[in-house]
Amino acid sequence: MENNRFRLSDMDFLSLVGKIVYYHNNVRSESSAFEIDEKARIEVCMPRIIGAYGVRLIFYDENRREELFSLALSWSDLEHGFDVYNSYIPIKKILTGLCYFSIEISSVFGIIYLYNNNGILRFSKKIQEPSFQLSVSDFEFDNTSSYLGGVIYHIFVDRFYRGNFRKSFVQSEKLLNWGAEIPEYPRYAGEPIKNDYFYGGTLFGIEDKLEYIKSLGVNIIYLSPIFKSPSNHKYDTSDYMEVDEAFGGDEALKSLIAKAREHGIFILLDGVFNHTGDDSVYFNKYGRFESVGAYESPESEYYSWYEFKKYPDDYVCWWGIKILPRINPDVRDCGDYFLSDGGVIDKYSKMGIAGFRLDVADELSDAFISSVKRRLCTNNGRSILYGEVWEDGSNKIAYGVRKKYYLGKELDGVMNYPIRSGIISYLRYGKTEPLRYALSEIIFNSPKRIRDMQMNLLGSHDTLRILTALGGEEPHGKNNEYLRQKRMSSSEYEKGKALLLSAYTVLATLPGIPCIYYGDEVGCEGYSDPFNRRTFPWGMENFEILDYYKKLGKIRRQNSVYKDGGYKLLYLDSSFLIFSRFNKKSLFLTVVNNGDKDVNIRFSKEATDLLSGCKEELFEIKKTTSKIFKTSKNSFIELIN
Questions:
Q1: 61 is catalytic
Q2: Percent of the chain, pLDDT > 90?
Q3: Which of 244, 296, 359, 362 is catalytic?
């Protein structure tokens, strides 16, 4: 990036191609996700040099095939050498749903098309597939404001902390010493293993560490599954109506909910409602439960939950894994078990949980998800519902069905894996396109309510530890025996640590709620499951990383802009990332130096470095580091190589 001097408010017009701006009730935005009661307007800005004299939008259905209507825009202004065309959008013609539109320009060069190429605007003389997305949502509940501005802390319960809960329901030979190496792992992808070794983490242990968790700025604890199950991960539910005794049972959950609330923290459970374990009340393949399971008899009350191809041993499983027979919550008896008075959702909602994260949400129907949301919010109007979705939740197609996650009746957010991929690709490899996609389309395709609640993450129980992903040896072609023993060298660790600080700076200052996977904040490393699920290293924390995470949590708490403020991506190349958060009073800049040289940034007016507290006009940003500034909206800034 050459030396540049520009006014922050002028950065809309840095593109030589043009700009599309939307107005939500006359509030300027880059988001094309509207609510049904908003007054919607669009501006298309393009350089005068192309000689435009007419602009038309052509709207298509969600499959981009059927033309719905067209809309002529009117010229309104010439601004910074750009012709500005605008029009109100007839939201009532779209109703609640998703559509796409093309931009057709009549110019002195003939008909040309403005299209979206992964967040970058391009011109073409050839007609393009409709590439601009627009959605209209109708939210049934106003339930999310209590959670904005906080942090989510994701805990794999067995590996966090034992606490003072002495009664063990785990066979002694299966209970490992805290910190012992993972003893069991698949030798090849998909090899079945029991996952029945335990380290003894409990809900009481989490309760003991609430002060620590709070110090990170956390206001939501997201627990891995806690229902009765024979495994350590508990995605193979045996009984939804019991909290596993190894974690402390129902008593421990009630106590954790109450004590967490005293710390201003809410509890989010993992809802695994797509499959059960084969060793369960419902399937009872091994006859360990008093109930008559579906495997035991077609007369079982649970038989209709499952799909048998050839009874009893040929049945539909989650991804072909035999210990995880799939259930169908759209079958009335099955759905009622979860949704009725006294059912699963009702029980835990009345215990005081904040809500659920739905496992494999793509494999649950829209009807069931909306019913879960309604049941939760009927019990408690502040309940929230997240979904495990790995892609853009605004336009997701799963099993041939366009999902309705963001249209107002279902999810409050998803696990934002695209931001994880984008940050890693950028910081480690210097790639801009995955990050541009995550910082533009993923964010602006989301309704603002969802954008502010999005579960932004750097890692989870299903990914490499973020420290390893940023600095460790590539795992491709390596077997699990090698990966189990592999540890980062000191140089790899230092590289990963430096990049992690920048990664969390980005995550903590974007729209949405940052989610910390337990142990990432103290420098845990490890490859994929099960090596990303080691015990929390109490007494061996990396305090440099921990203190940095705490500082960012404090910055989020102290500045309301990180609750629901505006957002703009200002600059992105392989060396620099700059984006802003703003409200009526303040403007905040996140600046990442991803290059190999130190740079200076000069402000025309005094700015505050929120990480150090320094107030200056000139700041140095060292290579592979980042800064957060609070400054004036009218300030000029200059980046100096």
A1: no
A2: 89
A3: 359
